[in-house]
Amino acid sequence: MIPFKKLVPGFLGLSSVILSAGAQSQQKDKRPNIIFILADDMGYGDLGCYGNKVIKTPNIDKLADEGIRFTQCYAGSALSSPSRCSLLTGKHTGHTTIRDNFCQQGGLPGLKNGNPIRRMHLLPQDSTIGTILSAAGYKTCVINKWHLDGFNPGAGPLDRGFDEFYGWLVSYETSNTPYYYPELRFQNRELTVIPENENNARGIHNSDLSIRESIDFIERNKQHPFFLYLAFDVPHEPYIINSTKPYDSLPLSETAKLYAALITHTDKAIGQLIDYLEKNNLRDNTLIIFTSDNGGAIQAPLEELNCNAGLKGHKALLYEGGIKVPFIVNFPKEIKGNQVKDNLIYFPDIMPTLADYTQAKLPKHTDGISIKPLLEGKEQITDNRILYWEFPGKQVAVRKGKWKAVSVKKNHKLELYDIEKDPYEKTNLAEKYPEIIKELEREIKKAHTPSPYWLIEGEENESN
Fold first, then answer.
1. How many domains does the chain have?
2. Residue 235's closest CA among 274, 261, 214, 217?
3. Is 436 exposed, middle or buried (0-12, 13-18, 19+ CB in 10 A)?
4. For the domain that residue 412 is a member of, what is the CATH number?
5. Does residue 424 sit in the same domain as residue 279?
6. pLDDT tens by residue, 197-218
7. pTM over the 0.90 mark
């Protein structure tokens, strides 16, 4: 691995005059580089560009100012594993292999906080963004959090289509402790020691380590078009960081200071990555997308920092606060800046969109659409289709146009909201519009396919 000190801004003094070798070689292949940045449990209202008045995020805000900020983007789920599965496979949770963090049967058994659980993992037949982009000639890499291996060590990123991996796996518990200052970390298939963090030294934060690995990957692969999936841990609890600057003097709880500092620290790290791209003349032809895997968690200072922007619910619930997320697209070469779009989009759209940009071949079945025309300023109707989410047998939600039907408790009737007039889901209109409920109930039945890992009463025979 190339030492980080050789990669920081300023190490190429002639970059402003002479194109780097990487940029020169990429003149032969006009397809864009792609960096997909995923936050972990970041609420819709955690960024300055989405209205936060306390948390400082100047670099992410600049990406939004110089690109497109979407106001109606939805994650693939309200929890990490199913949301990431939806993101990487282009399917909604009525069709995905992973539909909840834990499964009822199948998968593999393990422990979480000492309690026995089962987790499902991505299967070999699950085509991922890594699978299709690698086949299209891209160099592909996952940095940091995978969370799709369950307890199966044979279901990591290298087993599911990606060329390189630097991070931690659920299936190797020791690679994920302590959370933000890891002593052990995978470099591809080798579990290695991080010297700066040996013996709980807390010498390098996970976000900085992830940026170091990202720059190293790009530096070695910039002669090819590349896809970097950079999945930070921030701001997932536990909230651990050495310094809470610049929030020390503010009248905030300790939790709020730590939470805000984690986000601001990671924003600074993202700025270092962008600076590297600029100094290597890679910036203009690099498509950058920033989003979060789900809404803010109940452990977060939701009210104190307005993490979910007043939306109902939080992580693990299919109300807006659990699935509505920030979504920023920045591509200097192709996308005009200072745009705000309210089109309905969600995670299953990512795979078709990236396939469109890279000329990659999609698998036979995806649930999303390419929003490349929308990003390029063309008219595209995305709002009258069905967006779907489920935690099998426990929660379900469907969105069509302005209408959203949702139930967050087992066997409870659907609630109905007009999201255009009532984005905070305060007024349940189910009794007023029974015909809309019936229509959306039909859509729910069509969207859900039985899964052998999450059995619902009456489906046992169908799923076998």
1. 2
2. 261
3. middle
4. 3.30.1120.10
5. no
6. 999 999 999 999 999 999 999 9
7. yes
